[in-house]
Amino acid sequence: MEQTLSPTPRYKRILLKLSGEALMGDDAFGINRKVIDRIIGEVAEVVRMGVQTAIVIGGGNIFRGVAPGAAGMDRATADYMGMLATLMNALALQDALRRAGVVDPRVQSALQINQVAEPYIRGKALKYLEQNKVVIFAAGTGNPFFTTDTAAALRGREVGADIVLKATKVDGVYTADPEKVPTATRYDTLSFDEAIAKNLRVMDATALALCRDQEMKLGVFSINKPGALKRVVLGENEGTLVLC
């Protein structure tokens, strides 16, 4: 019987940026169990292909529930609250990965909360990735005024990821908001300078500039599209690839 060879991933190491909102599904806020299990299934598939995977998670799904009470709050205080929300999501991802049979996922936090997460230590993160353990980076950069997009670009560069992958609700970057402009078209490829100049809101400007200056690839795809993460990792035409 002829043996079928498994496809070879284009990327050996990836940094996946997940928004907190991606975990909500159709709920108003919080974590939807079916949604998180589906997302983890996609992640587990690429991990089993041998792709070293790190994740940066946002906290919008949790912070959204307390945002009305945070109106008028000091910005730094609100940002720290958001960082704590990312830690809650990171622990939920860790639990779901364990239930999916992924080997020993680790949470590293930029804020010191040693009872529930390791502190972020670059050397340990690299060692875990080399052991094919999923590393989940929580609490952003640990500093207020910086988004989790910037944290993804920073951590991606620190761990030597081949690409930063931003998982969104839209299957790539469009010339305009496709929900508002039906004639909007998707970019297959795009330059960082073009994304910044056209204010396409791929990521915030700081994150885009960091990726550009460090010559780090950025992929944008829909986390709601079954198999999309695997296709991106295999180098297929999925989503939008942003390059220098």
Structure keywords:
alpha/beta; Carbamate kinase; nine-stranded mixed sheet; 244 residues; 36% helix; single chain
- Strand content range: 15-25%
> Tell me about the biggest sheet?
9 strands, mixed
Query: If classified by CATH, what would the architecture be?
Result: 3-Layer(aba) Sandwich
- Roughly how many Å is the radius of gyration? 17 Å
Total strands: 9
| CATH homologous superfamily caption | Acetylglutamate kinase-like
Structural domain count: 1
Secondary structure: helix percent? 25-40%
The name CATH uses for the topology is: Carbamate kinase
> What's the level 1 CATH class?
Alpha Beta
The number of helices is 8
**Mean pLDDT across all residues, rounded?**
92
Uncertain stretches of 5 or more adjacent residues: none
Widest β-sheet, arrangement of strands: 4-3-5-2-1-6-8-9-7
The gross shape turns out to be: globular
Q: Which structural class do you get from the secondary structure elements? A: alpha/beta
